[in-house]
Amino acid sequence: MKYLYCLLLLPAGLMAQENKPVTPVISSDYQRLIHTDGIVPSRHSTYHTLQVKNMAPANTPLRKLAVRRDELVMRQQYPTTLYIKGVYSATMELKTVNRQPALQTQFVQGRSGAWQGPETNELFSYGPALHSLEFDGSAYTWDINGKLVPAGTGNGHNAIAYMNSIFHTGSRFSQSFDLQSRLMQQHNNIMELNLHLGHSNENTVIRDNNNYHKELSATAIARIKWLRIAGTIQYTDDAFSNTNRNGFLNQVYRQSILTPVSFDNAQGYTLGAGQRSYSLLADNPGFLLHNPSHYANATSRRMNLVLERNSYKKVKYTLSQLFDRHTSNSGEGYQPGSSSFPSGKPLYRNATDKLYQLKGEAYRNIPYGVYSLNGDITARYIFTNVSTGIQYLPNEQYYRYARSQHELSLSYNTSYALDRWFFSLGLEDKVYVSNTATRKDFLLPAVKATVRLSEFGDGWSGSINTLYTQVNTELPLSGSLADISLLRYKVSEAGKYLPAEEIAGFDQLAPIHHTDWTGSLVVNKSRWLGFTGTLFLKQVTDDQLPIFEKNNFQLVNVANHQTKGIDLELWLFQIAPQDKRLQTSHTLSFYAYRNKVTSVLSSAEPVPMAGFSDVHTAVVAGQPMGVIMGSTWERDARGNRVIGADGFPLVAKNTAIIGNPHPDFIVKWNNTVHWWKLDLYVNVEWKKGGDRWNGTRAALDYYGRSQGSAQDRNVNGYIFPGVLTNGAPNHTPVSFYDPKLPLETNRWVRYGEAGVAADYIERADQLRLNTLKLSFRQPFRQGIRQLTLSAYVNNLVLWTPYKGVDPEQRLFDQTNSIGLDYFNLPATKTYGINASIQF
């Protein structure tokens, strides 16, 4: 029916249409709104065509729409997104000391077969056997149990072997918090803010010795049109109960293990107004550690500002400035009553290091217009101004050092890819100018070349790389060289060592020139098997060392030396075929090098590097850098040891080279196993060769505290192999220790506290399990992104024929002292757990 109605109305609808032009309806309000933009023409105007600039995609929100000249400008409304993520990490560690030298617990303080108590000031432990003594129960100032008397004449309480260790289980708790926030627009960072907070508190393995560390850093990055701005502020603060710059903690350790087994340091370290120790010529470790004027504090403030502009006329510019200020103050003296300084020796050191660095860089990519041919050029300029001020009190010694240096470099790199081949070549020249150097170098070239084949054979790829560089350096002004003053003292005078004298200056020296060449071959198979072999040659000319000259320590250009070696690495990455969740990776590396001093520039040769006046490392022409020099046995032309009239060997008049601290080779094995959410990491290291002077054993022998002296002190009728001064074979029997003879004539005391250094050279081969770590990772979908729990052990196992502490420990923490051991502190074994939360 409805279709019938429409059909009936159709004639009326057609008659209602009027055939005439349509007149536009334009109001004054409409004209006012569109007048400024001029997009819609008026009734009497002609149409005008506009060019659209930055055409926005359909359905895109617009931030602005405007007509400028003949262009329609469209500004898109990009969404702004804020991303925030962070990490909180907490670590708890327990530390125990690793291996220590073997001490005897059988014999007490004294000599000539008699016990001599602390009131006698006896230093030696050549007294009677401990089991032959007992306490008498009397009121005795030095021991709450009384004096020691022969068994059967006292109160029946057997003598006690006091251990006197200064070590206990140490602990360290550290926390860190990192917060990263990014403001992004169209997948670009427009602003970024990073914050880092850290704190640690360590109760070291040495009793009554604590360390604290605090740090704060903030980084802000912003993009303003074509400019990228990045700024960083960093603050660190460290506090230590004791400084070891003067070997203080080594001195504490020395006093603890030299204490006779019959004296208990733990019963108190003061006696009346003075010190309680087993001798006025020795110290109680507790007395040394409880010195309020012995401390170390350090504070560092650093600011960095980076400005970067991209693609200005196809050139990228970077300009950065760095400000750094580091202050440290320490108390390094001894309080009244100490054995080396009975009247006390106050010493305070204050140091301030300042650094300003300006770095500018311009980078431009070079389009050759040829497919697969690329190039770039970089110009870099670095200006560095550093200054150091050091003050010693109360002796009012002041030292001021300053240096300004300019480094300019221009580098060009080009690469070409052709099918499976890739070739690259880099050329660079550097300029080095410094106001403390006597020579300005304007030609310090560097060349780098690579040839790579991406595929050959069955999934194999490989490359050949070579690098040649020349670089100038100088010793940093902030690195104190005062420890060189230890060379003024003999081993027996180590307790008097106080580094209170710096070098005269860093001026008027040729810069240290380094010429390095490396060549390597890299072969890979399908990313699961790889091999890298590297040969290297390093030559150093005008190396610098401080020496004692003109009544003070002068820094001089001392020697030229070279190092050549080989570095091999084989790695395997394997995914278990039956379980895709199981992955393993293994890396085996072999490293060996040989070092040689090619010439000595100093007038005095050999040149001592570190250690004592009678035992030290040195620079000797034709020998490895840092060979060990010390006393040795007198020998005839055939190499036979010369024996004196009393039957004991004679000591040579002059010192000689007695050891080489450098290893023959080093092998490392790293292993990682990943299964499900677990990761297991194991690191093993084998170091073959290298010598160490065991001065600790020499001193323990001298004072009768070593296990070796306890085992051999009853040796009688021993004949030392060798010849007499007339060349005849030696047949004179001797006793190592005869209580009826003066103590100075026994096997160990007769040669002094350092012994005959050559007799205490030991091999430093070592096999160690460095790290064992197990980690568990649990990811989450909301809130917390991942939780990681780890448990690890560092320095777990150490095997070495060396009879001292860890052979990698250094003498008084000095840089050039590797190979010397005189009461070096034991290394620590660390058990740790870590929890890390990412959100």
Plain-language structure description:
The chain is mainly beta and 839 residues long. Among the domains are: 76 residues, no CATH class; 41 residues, no CATH class; 144 residues, no CATH class; 213 residues, no CATH class. The protein has a 22-stranded antiparallel beta barrel. A hairpin with a 6-residue loop joins strand 20 and strand 21. It starts with a helix and ends with a strand. The N terminus is likely disordered.
List key phrases describing it:
839 residues, mainly beta, 22-stranded antiparallel beta barrel, 4-stranded antiparallel beta sheet, 6 helices
Task: Describe the structure in brief.
With 839 residues, the chain is mostly beta strands. The chain has a 22-stranded antiparallel β-barrel. The protein has a four-stranded antiparallel β-sheet with strand order 27-28-29-31, with no helix packed on it.
What structural category arises from helix and sheet content? mainly beta
Tally of helical segments? 6
Strand content range: over 45%
Largest sheet: 22 strands, antiparallel, barrel
Low-confidence spans? 1-22, 30-45
Q: What is the overall shape?
A: elongated
**Termini separation (Å)?**
71 Å
Q: Kindly state the number of beta strands.
A: 40
Taking all Cα atoms into account, the compactness measure Rg is: 38 Å
Helix content: under 10%
Q: Mean of the pLDDT scores?
A: 91
Keywords: Signal
Organism: Chitinophaga eiseniae
Signal peptide: 1-16
Protein name: TonB-linked outer membrane protein, SusC/RagA family
